[in-house]
């Protein structure tokens, strides 16, 4: 359990556009964390791979140069910042674990500046303009929670947000909130016909995780167009926080850099779980089939 004696804590989500220069993006992230802390945020989540533009739009071996070790330069920087401000920072990074071995990893820097731990993205997509399997090895740390002075948090990353099993296993460890650092957007050729439905599906899937698990869910996405006009991605923003009943209590727009600061209340979790006791009524004896790839109707 968290050491925080209070029932409430405040989270911050940072939504920005990214330039081609990692140093510029890192400097912006530091400034935005400072702003979020000044507005009262105690746990601040940055968007997925915030140090660069979304390089997985193409398969280029030289882009492995963007990766870094954990602990490393960025976690040291964010650790110093976390200690200075007394906040927790969720920092999504391109991890170089060894030569030829890379992960999409979220590092959690605690309020004392130490590395509380990290989560390696488990579900790795391979779709047009999302060629992540070229860069990332699937995570091998499992689903994790991290204790902070303000609350117990679970961290998942982007494509993980579509999987109810991932949310459930993370929530079952006692998380007060599930954070999803994200980089998701529209293909230019799809936005007019399917864009609204895609955005709605993304928001709905994560609201469902909040409802099914009685936890807060917080997704931090980026904005801006990256890449060539006909072969790039328009990141749709809409970072948001849903409460344990699935109510969207704060949401950013599609085009503006924004910081959301939201108060989370464990009393709300207790209230919702008493009314909808999904954990009580789970038939755990009937779920063995979930470990199979497919059951062929048996």
What does this molecule look like?
The longest helix is centred in the last third of the chain and has 23 residues, at 191-213. The mean pLDDT is 96. The protein has six helices and 17 strands. 25% of the residues lie in helices and 28% in strands. Helix 1 (22-38) links the parallel strand 1 (8-15) and strand 2. Helix 1 (22-38) packs parallel to helix 2 and helix 3 packs parallel to helix 4 (191-213).
Total helical segments = 6
What name does CATH use for the topology? Nitrilase/N-carbamoyl-D-aminoacid amidohydrolase
As a percent range, the share of helical residues equals 25-40%
Average pLDDT figure: 96
Taking the sheet with the most strands, its summary is: 6 strands, mixed
Looking at CATH, the homologous superfamily is Carbon-nitrogen hydrolase
Broad structural category: alpha+beta
* Structural domain count: 1
How do you describe this structure in short?
Helices cover 25% and strands 28% of the residues. The protein is of the alpha+beta class and 298 residues long.
